[in-house]
Amino acid sequence: MSLSATTSRMLACKGAPAELRRRAGTTGTFGTDSCRAFITSYSPDQLVGQVRQGDARAVVGAAYPSLGGPEPHDQLVQDGKLWTIMGAKERRVRGVLAGYDLWLRGTGTADDRRGNRAETEGGALGVTGGGSRIAVA
User: Fold this and answer.
1) What is the mean pLDDT of the chain?
2) Do both 67 and 40 map to the same domain?
3) 69 and 17, same domain (yes or no)
4) Are residues 85 and 133 located together in one domain of the fold?
5) Same domain? 97 vs 74
6) Same domain, yes or no, for 123 and 98?
7) 119 burial class (0-12, 13-18, 19+ CB within 10 angstroms)?
8) Could you tell me if 124 and 78 lie in one domain?
9) What is the CA angle 115-121-122, rounded to 5?
10) Core-most of 28, 105, 107, 130, by most CB within 10 Å?
11) Same domain for 28 and 86?
């Protein structure tokens, strides 16, 4: 079985629907491509160089008809979480493109990325969305 077929099977079983987004110039308009992505965390021993705690890695398939392959500063959206692509490496065997390995970093504030978290407003205590954490300003 080829690496391309193996990558496709893995993404069909373990991946989830995602969307690759590329900003059009300096506008707020994005070109998009649907894909399947399998996202995992880096282990502590892999946090070297510019890779930070909270970064993730992903495998995505090779088919991107409208955008071409993913590039740094493109975005990947999966399950409502927005990731910025910090780096992308082609997965090739004997010249055949099988997919891409991506280095991802979450975007927005920490609370935006984590979702259901405690929030404060004007120094008051607040718990949002049934969360169990309380924040004091």
Assistant:
1) 77
2) yes
3) yes
4) no
5) yes
6) no
7) middle
8) no
9) 165
10) 105
11) yes
**10, 59 in Cβ contact below 8 A?**
yes
> Nearest-5° angle of CA 39, CA 89, CA 63?
75
CB count in 10 Å sphere of residue 20: 25
Q: Indicate the length of the chain as a whole number.
A: 137
By C-alpha distance, which of 122, 87, 118 is closest to 101?
87
Tell me the pLDDT tens digit for each residue of 86-131.
999 998 888 888 889 999 998 753 344 444 333 333 333 434 444 4
What pLDDT, on the 0 to 100 scale, is given for residue 26? 79
The domain in which residue 128 lies consists of 110-137
The pTM for the full model equals 0.69
Structural domains in the chain (count): 2
Question: How deeply is 36 buried, as exposed, middle or buried, from its count of CB atoms within 10 A (0-12, 13-18, 19+)?
Answer: buried
